UniProtKB/TrEMBL annotation:
Keywords associated with the record: Flavoprotein, Oxidoreductase
Organism: Actinoplanes sichuanensis
UniProt superkingdom: Bacteria
UniProt key word Flavoprotein: yes
InterPro entries for the chain: FAD/NAD-bd_sf, FAD/NAD-binding_dom, Ferredoxin-NADP_redctase_2
Residue ranges annotated for the FAD/NAD(P)-binding domain, each copy included: 4-273
Name of the protein described by the UniProt record: NAD(P)/FAD-dependent oxidoreductase
UniProt catalytic activity: [thioredoxin]-dithiol + NADP(+) = [thioredoxin]-disulfide + NADPH + H(+)
Residues passing through the membrane, by range: none
Amino acid sequence: MNEYDVVVVGGGAAGLSAALVLTRARRRVAVLDAGRPRNAPAAHMQGFLSRDGMPPAELLAAGRAEVTGYGGELISGTVRELLPTGAEGFRVRTAEGRLLFARRIVVATGLRDEIPDIPGLAGRWGRDVLHCPYCHGYEVRDRPLGVLGGSPETVGHALLIRQWSDDVTFFSNGYESTADERQRLAARDIRIVDGAVSRIVIDGDRLAGIELDWASVVAPHALFVRPRLVPADGLLAALGAEVIDVRTGRTSVAGVWAAGNAVDPRAQVITAAGAGSAAAIDLNADLVDEDVRAALPFSAAQERRVAAILANTH
């Protein structure tokens, strides 16, 4: 059986939350997931009410168990083709050769973090090279912290990180901050270290220092990096779909909803889960409307049109 009421593309917090609501609404649901969650490197997930400190993998495992417990189907795979098929809905083809048909689609494909190409940086990502102070700041509070510069936005990032520690260093990494920016950093006692960062120094299994192009090495407890957030919105772009209702994730393509980081890069796990739930509720209401229309008897005018069409086919 490869026909579903809804195919959810993406098995993170947004996708699983949508699937949970829809399976509890007694819809036939499949979740297609490539198995590459954005927060996999992180040891713990913070700021999720009742789940604070839970490892991300445990949250996803619990969500998968809940979805399958209500009859949802989990399918490992990457969607390569998503095409409207008219009144019937959508055809979904995976890179692994699976073919599915769905009346409705939820795209919850997340995003990827694009970080500077500095030796040693990627290997510490989610451990002591961090991006979100709301996710990780409390765990490194009151410790010496570094912030990697490179753009005007990173200055604001450093000012934000100062909330968690009074020992913050801004590594400009080649960014020439303005006089106003330097004054703002100085007002919050944030040190500025100029020069390009050439590599991250690792000793054993910890961040041991930051090497600059003029050979000086300093060693904060953790380094915050502001990544470039790249939504995994290729399926939406191929459909020409844009979100037209941010409350529900309804898009400009009939039958397609979107939720989570694919359309809201700044959403945290709890926010993404809420967006998945909102999308599912709106989507199910749309299916209910369609079910009602299908159940209504033909009007006399509709019956005449059908009769005329059938007569012309003989």
